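Comment thread on ticket #2218

A.B. wrote:
> Attaching the input chain for the structure job we discussed in standup.
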Amino acid sequence: KNDMRWFPPSFTTLVNLKNVDIRNNLIFELPPDIGNCAKLLELRLDHNKLYDLPQSMAQMPLLRKVTLDHNRFQILPGWLDELEHLKMLTFNYNEVDKLPSTFHLLGTTLTELRCTYNKLTQISTMFTALKRLKILDISGNPIKSVPKQLGQCEDLEELYVNFCSLITMDIHLAECRKLATFKYEGNELMTYPPREVQVKGPTMVLRFFRQITDCPKSKMMLLDKFDLAEFDETILNYPKCTWLDMSRNNMMKIPAEIRQLQFAELINFSHNKLAGIPRILC
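C.D. wrote:
> Ran it. Output below, let me know if you need it in another format.
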């Protein structure tokens, strides 16, 4: 930590630099010719007062890691996609409310993206186009849903959506088969998945989702022991389900719409709290 207000211009003549760490200063801007440091691999600029980056940085073909946490960014540079080897980008605790229109072009390289506590309102296609992404932390943004398209990030291993404003998560998150770490704390208004599933933790949420999304292949859904108080109508989107096990839950009724499961061969609602069954099943 120092009190530098300017990045020393003389540093831009050090063309063999590979790592620059000027975190915890008072720097407002970088010199326009910083791109001369073409061999730079890592650039750490956290805890400054930056609001923009010079265009010349696009001339850093080897740059792999850029950290911009705790600055004053409201928008990110539109040339970021020109960093052909960028693997890690963080801009936590800024004021960014949307991503550049070319951000999706980082999809072939970016593996780690952390952008907590900004003003992003959705997980847009700019995120879901990042096919190589392994770590996504978007906690603390006013995001209301985890969309279906996020399931296209097949390499995703870690997902953090803590303390957002989530109302729903799409079941197709289950298609992220490599997802091992999943955190969604502090989303008290979330209505889907069912609350009974949420409280069982991330592993059970993913199991619940996968039982549903795998149905087209398996023809079955094993949704027993989730303590569900109500029938999940998402099930009705899979009318070719042949085996539905919803035993050992807490349901008090079965909706008449269950008749839509025309291919069902076995339906198990044992060990619930049912007072009766729809006439259509009698």
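A.B. wrote:
> Thanks. Noting for the ticket: The mean pLDDT is 94.
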